[in-house]
Structures are given as structure tokens and as C-alpha cells.
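As a warm-up, study this chain.
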Amino acid sequence: MNLYLLAAAADAAPESKFGFVEAMREGGPVAWSILAIMVIMSVGSFYIMFTKLFEQNKVMKQYNAVQTQFWRASSLKEGAAKLDKDGPWRQLADDAVKAQDEHGKMTDALESHDYMHGSLQRSEDSINAVLAGGLPFLATVGATAPFVGLLGTVIGIYRALINIGIAGNASIDKVAGPVGEALIMTAIGLLVAVPAVFAFNWLQSRNRKIAAMLSTFSTDLLAYMNSNGAVKPAVVAAAPAAKPAAKPAANPTLNKS
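Now compare it with the structure written out below.
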């Protein structure tokens, strides 16, 4: 009889359910809205991360063509034609060809040099601006996602304390569960922010490396134009000349005859 009464009392007692879904239900529309914002932040961060990584790898791979093909051409136009049309190196080479064609119209040599230098610098800046696209979003997510999660936590704790006050029961089991659920939003905010910060710093360092390569290429183009093709990068200028093919040895039987 006693066992039957205990089992009935256990079935009648309300079960306390805790978890992410329960926390979102308790939070209401505000909690769901905050969660939706953090999902958008996370998806956008990973999209930018992978697209920028693919773009940077493509630019670095195209730089090999600059070293192996471009500087071996007899003119800038011929070298530019060997580069990918959609690449930054082709854009910089085309702008150099255009500047070379137009600088001769200027009567002052100093102004002509400044015009070519300014044209290449503008082209270089525009390429760097494209490569930096999307990185401010990563920086914004890394800086604000923890605070967005903290806002969800504050709202969750506020609702939990209100419910506890209404129920009039402040025991540890009534407080720990709702407050622990509210902290889930802070954890989500950190999970969104940390990858964004790492991605921003990594992609930024790769962009600086590409910017240095662009600056080197721009300087080599300017030197090539001002010297009428006499000055080329050291790796190309120092390339060893091809050795002439060895002549076949004379046939001794033919000499005797």
C-alpha cells in the first residue's frame, strides 16, 4: 500500500524540465529574435570566411603566372594577355599599359612619372579594397556577438526571477535551473564571436601579404616602363640563358672516306 502511494505521488508531482528549448520558450519572442540574429551572424561569418579564403588562394596562385610568364614577354601588352582576365594582376597590368600609352601626351617628365605612379597606386588601392570586402562584418560579429548573447542572458534571468518571485519559492532548485538556462545565450554568443575573430585576424594577415605582392609588382611595372623595358625583376633578369644544343659528333667513317 505504501509503495502504491509513493508511486502515485511521484506521478502526480510536476516534472522540472530544463534545456535549450525550454529556455527559449520561457524567453518568448525576444529570446527567439536574439537567437535568429546570432544565427544570421554565424552563417554570414562562415560564408565570408570561405569565400574570402577561396579568393585569396586564387590571387596567390595567379601570382605564379606573373613570375613565370608575364616578365618573359617582350612587351607589357603581350605579358598582360597571358594573365587571367578576372585577376588583380591583369587589372594592374592593363592599367600600366593604359598609363604607358597616355603618359607620352604630357610635356613635363616629372608629371609624366607622377601620373604613371598615381595610376598604378589607384589600381592597387582598388584591388586591396575588394580583397578587404566582408572583413568589417567579421570584426563587427566578433565585437558584438558576446553582447547580443549577454542581452539574451539578462532577459532570461529577469524572466526567471520574476517567475520565482510570483511563485514565492526561492529554493536553490527553483533558481539554479532558470538562471543556468539563461546562460546558454551567452555561450552561443561566444561560439559565434570566437570563429569570427580568428577568421578576421587570419584573413587580414593574408591580405597584408597580398598587398605586399601587389606593391612589388606595381614597383616593377613602374621601373619597367621608365626604363623602356631595360629593368626587370631580379628573378627574371638573372635567369640563365639557354645553352645551345650540342652538335652531333662527327662520324669517323665518313671522314675516312
